[in-house]
Target: Acyl-CoA dehydrogenase
Amino acid sequence: MPVERLLPTPEAYDLIELTRDVADKVLAPRVVEHERNETFPEGVFPALGAAGLLSLPYPEEFGGGNQPYEVYLQVLEELGARWAAVAVAVSVHGLSCFALATHGTEEQKARWLPDMLGGETIGAYSLSEPQAGSDAAALACRATAVDGGYRISGSKAWITNGGKADFYTLFARTSDAGSKGISCFLVPAGTEGLSFGKPEEKMGLHAVPTTTAHYDDAFVPEERRIGAEGQGLPIAFSALDSGRLGIAAVAVGLAQAALDEATAYAKERKAFGKKIIDHQGLGFVLADMAAAVDSARATYIDAARRKDAGLPYSRQASVAKLVATDAAMKVTTDAVQVLGGYGYTRDFPVERFMRDAKITQIFEGTNQIQRLVIARHLAG
Model:
């Protein structure tokens, strides 16, 4: 059964119905093939873009959908319930547009944002490096000022959509001033000197590549620097607050899909003369799964409403990411248990859900980092 949602406007209900229709027709029929073969789903992102689902939280004047985050995240959840890899890529695209949309000049936004939000392009976020994941201040990729712009040299890691994206929101070091020496750049795909490594062989999210990127004296014009020199980390961290909510929503979608599969199976499978859902031991497992999904959804919606109201929401974003992704890991693992031996095979999707759920506890800041953020807020 579809999730019963409380949405702020009639338009939002229509948007959720549109999302379900597109997801059922465009995503659901292709997910098994591409995840199993580890092939990129050509045509999927243009279809989502044509439906207006790639730019929902951004202003209409630049081609966005002008939707509140409360609604956008529930769209992501619906996509995540059908195909987590694609939903993650959509979330990363939104994250990649954030720097320009919030810190770009009016001229920069007018020049580049319509193409980024128009549905024909998809973005990637380049913050982490092989030696600098959680410790973003340790970035070593360097942007050296030259006449008319910057020469960039170094490597970036763990890039979702790497090699497939049309633009990269890059964070590189412009001085040796530690965390204050990092700047933000908008790098177009095809930039001379930019190349990509072999896609990582991952546990899950097989259909969307994750790669390293190598900058070999790549020239980026000064006009493509977003914000002031040294402003990069504040931009990156503010973007990650919203990005963590995207991952929380995708994780809830995964957990909801796992709950639905497990419940449907438990209503059909019989043991000892009755449906297994009617055995109290298993019924309680399903009840705990449902409670975890509902609780996780509530955390990201609360954070989103705070963001929409212009209130501080960094702590709530970390809570949502922590609670939702831990819930997704637990619920998908329990779904495999409910299906028993069948759950451990690729004939049923809960095996894929469990593999996909694990990464949600790691990217956009590990859940240990989320606990650190929450603790620091508590300490004042």
Observations:
- The chain has three domains: 10-118, 123-231, 234-379.
